Amino acid sequence: MRKKILKLQKYSPFFILLSSILAFSAVLKFQGFTFVQFVILTILSVLYLSFALTHHFFDKSLSFEIMLEYVLTVLLALIILYGLLL
Amino acid sequence: MELHNWFLPHKETHKKAHLISWEALFCYVLIFIILQVSFSIVSFIKPGVLGITSQISQKNLIELTNQERQKNDLPTLSENSSLSQAAYTKAKNMFTENYWAHFAPSGKTPWDFILGAGYRFTFAGENLAKNFYTDDEVVKAWMVSPTHKGNILNPKYQDIGMAVVEGVLNGQKTTLVVQMFGTTTALAALPSVNINGHNFSVKKNEYESAPQFFGIEQQSLANSFARPFIDPFQASRALGVFVIFAVIVLLTLDFAVLKKRGVFRLNSNHLAHIAFLTTAAAITLTLNPGSIL
Question: What stretches of B117-229 show up as alpha helix (H) in DSSP?
Fold first, then answer.
């Protein structure tokens, strides 16, 4: 299991890029559907955090400061976007 | 504290620039929270100061709706003044009762407005939109939604009524678009109204005793509502894009400078941040404040 995750986490940047492109297209497609856009952005943020933190955890480089940087980056993007949607 | 330390990694310690440290990110988050709270307070204290100015024309919306029908080999709809009056009365009522829904909190139904305006339908429908900047955006959003599209492309309809009304909703200047469809041709045993893909049958007693909205002013094409002082959407978007791009540029500089210095620093992944923030910036730039119902 650990080996599988280690193998997968190498592709984290690819997953982040792919999910970002998908989220962008979905938000464009659902203009006017505030709730759907809200859900898409939340899913993207959760995926981003999961990929990033898993990557650092298996890379043995996960520290409190690194976690904080990811969480704050996600919060910043979400607050700006939720502010526009609400 | 030296100026370049705010923008570039520190020369001796190679620490991140102050403006992309976690403390700075925390400050940016706080600034945006304060901005949103301030907008809510201003909307509450001074209703109408904040809001959106739309460039939507009733005639263009009808034309665009008919174009969509023509693309699908359907007959065009004729503008009906009673249906337009019903749409206008409905929009005014949403401002008066401060709601954004098909059914009013006071219990008024869409067919109350249609029958109240004197349109004796056998089948009718309603689409709503608010805060779009242009006509195109409204019709595009309706056409993406299967239920709204179903109304626009319903072959049973013969008439259309449209109202674009400005007013203050939840403390902010808002542009409401109400689109009503109808036919007076006998179709079913009971008259019905299509709302969000659901058919609501109108009971005989409701149909016969529909309220008349004589008290409400007649529809006026002239839009005399004052422009809002600040568009909160544009203000948040401009500040948001500026902050995101600034962080992206500083992260790129940090990455490039560290590489040039040949220094390894244990930190979060710059490229991941840049990819995520670029997506956030792209979404911020393409979002519009409009919503449909």
Answer: 135-144, 146-152, 204-208
